Amino acid sequence: MNREETPREGQVWEGWLTGNSALLEEINASVRFDHRLAQQDLDGSVAHARMLAGSGVISSAESELIVSGLERIRGEIEAGEFTFDPALEDVHMNVEARLRELIGPVAGRLHTARSRNDQVAVDARLWVRDAIGRLDALLGRVIDVIAERAEVHHADVMPGFTHLQCAQPVTIGHHLLAYGEMFLRDRDRLRCARLRLDESPLGAAALAGTGYPIDPYDTARRLGFGGVTRNSLDAVSDRDFVLDYLSAGATLAVHISRLGEEMVIWSTPQFGFIALPEDLCAGSSIMPQKRNPDLPELMRAKSGRIFGDLMALLTVMKGLPLAYSRDMQEDKEALFDAADNLEVGVRAAEAMLRGITFRPEKTRADAALGNTVATDVADWLVAGQGLPFREAHSVVAGLVKWLGVQGRELKDSSPAELGDFDARLRPMPPEVLTVENAVARRTSPGGTSPELVRKAAVELRGRNAESN
Ligand code: ARG
After folding, report:
1. Average pLDDT of the residues of the chain
2. Protein residue with least CA distance to atom 4, ligand 1
3. Residue 121: its pLDDT value, please?
4. Within 13 A of 461's CA, how many CA atoms are on the CB side?
5. How far apart are CA 418 and CA 403, in angstroms?
6. Is 166 left (phi over 0), alpha (psi -120 to 50) or beta?
7. Measured distance CA(20)–CA(243) in Å, rounded
8. Known catalytic residue: 163?
9. Residue 284, exposed/middle/buried by CB under 10 A (0-12, 13-18, 19+)?
């Protein structure tokens, strides 16, 4: 069949454009993915139809007929009975064509004072708003699990690292709460994105507004928007609300990735800080002993495509003259892909945080490796012997070197022995050399002392609840 020659009935611009090439359909049709906007599209159309009636642009009877047709379409879509036709380009045209089948020519009144440009802008805003709601709720759950687990492990000591080298002891609870702070800020970034998108673009029409006496505040109210966009060109030509979501998502993906990475490392026998939940591990097709951390690995890897989605849309948008260009249709796959993968990534993080078992004996033993109390010895020289910190630092640096030559570390030594290196160390209380002392004395705000960590866990739960 030569489709190039066959004008299709039902296309809205029939009578103007006659060509209908298969290539045009392939590159142009978006319904393959934008059918995911269907519910939002129906919501937008219902609100628009009611507003048109309220403003006297169409009659109440026409509006009711349109709304009942739209609701029937909603039912068909929910029941999986709706067939989306790529020849009708996108979700908007598919819904409108079906409406015409259902209610006849009155369907043609729905698009009064509206263009697909403001229609797709409102649909996308509604979709992003829902996606933010879902992601935010998932994050709230993750933070609750973190608070719970941090409380349990508020006093269990583990190594703290810088450069992935042994640095100073911290507690497991403290380490977990660091992620709690990151995820709480992620919630905040999402909330800001939601605040900024809270304006309805309906009424901007194609780009310049409309001459019909519409009431965009009415549609905005019906759709739960706090306001109305103030410039019709801006309303149809920016997708910064998608970029806000994607960039908040990209930062969140970094956090999930780092947490996944730590779980991968922690679960190796060399670290042995955690045991992975068996039901979330994968095996190997050849090595019978394997329990692989595939799930945290994918938490780490999902970040790649989410950064890609953000980069894709930034690139699509950056050269577009105002107002709408078809390029903007490319926002959707990036948006849907990011939302799907962020949601599964956060759910994976929650499952892992719930499922891992910490090994506090191992983390405590490792916390003492690598002279991690060296700073505490230097601090004691300041407090107990009145040395300036820089001098104390240099004494302990020499001490650690001296021990190393003998194949020893601070954890294998007593103050009396250390006194052989520098007599000023002899009166030091022996507990200065313990990791328990090291964490207990770090009581500065935000520090790792178990008492503070326990309180911080409780506070995190409260702050998380407040951001609901
Ligand atoms: N499917 C289109 C999109 O997502 C809808 C808007 C089409 N507007 C237009 N002027 N062709 O961008």
Report:
1. 95
2. 329
3. 98
4. 13
5. 9
6. beta
7. 33
8. yes
9. exposed
Q: H or E segment at 22? A: helix 22-28
- Rounded to 5°, the CA angle 134-71-211 comes to 90
- Strands (DSSP E) contained in 151-292 are 157-162, 165-171, 199-200, 227-228, 274-275
Sign of CA dihedral 126, 127, 128, 132: positive
Return d(Cα 188, Cα 143) in angstroms, integer. Answer: 13
* pTM assigned to the model: 0.94
Polymer length of the chain: 468
Task: List b or e across 187-199, with b for residues whose CB sees 16 or more CB atoms inside 10 angstroms.
Answer: bebbeebbeebeb
User: Using a CB cutoff of 8 Å and minimum separation of 24, what contacts does 224-230 make?
Assistant: 225/125, 225/198, 225/199, 225/200, 226/198, 226/199, 227/198, 227/199, 227/200, 228/199, 228/200, 228/203, 229/199, 229/200, 229/201, 229/204, 230/199
Distance between CA atoms of residues 224 and 244, nearest Å: 20
The letter for the amino acid at 20 is N
Structure confidence by residue, pLDDT tens digits, 280-335? 999 889 989 988 999 999 999 999 999 999 999 999 999 999 999 999 999 999 99
Query: Which residue lies with its CA nearest to atom 1 of ligand 1?
Result: 90
**pLDDT above 70 as % of the chain:** 96
Report the C-alpha gap between 182 and 258 in whole angstroms: 11
Question: Active-site residue among 284, 285, 303, 394?
Answer: 284
284 as an active site residue: the answer is: yes
Nearest atom in ligand 1 to the alpha carbon of residue 206 is 10
- For 282-416, where are the E strands, in sequence order? 357-358
Q: Which atom of ligand 1 is nearest to the CA of 328?
A: 12
> Using one digit for the tens of pLDDT, what is the confidence trace for 1-53?
344 444 455 556 556 666 668 999 999 999 999 999 999 999 999 999 999 99
Contact by Cβ (8 Å): 122, 128 = no
| Nearest to 62, CA basis, from 98, 110, 123, 95 | 110
Query: What Cα–Cα distance (Å) separates residue 114 from each residue in 63, 149, 164, 223, 418?
Result: 15, 52, 58, 16, 82
Ligand 1 neighbours, Cβ below 6 Å, are: 30, 34, 90, 116-117, 120, 324, 326, 328-329
Give every residue of the chain whose pLDDT is below 70, as ranges. Answer: 1-20
Catalytic residue among 163, 174, 232, 325: 163
Q: Widest CA span of the chain, in angstroms?
A: 100
As given in the structure block, the two tokens for residue 163 are 């450069």
Q: How many CB atoms lie within 10 A of CB 302?
A: 22
CA distance 455 to 438: 18
What is the residue type of 203? G
Bridge partners, 1 (sequence order): none
| Contact (CB, 8 A) for 112 and 105 | no
Q: CA-to-CA distance for 359 and 296, rounded, in angstroms?
A: 18
- Distance from the CA of 335 to the center of ligand 1, in angstroms? 16
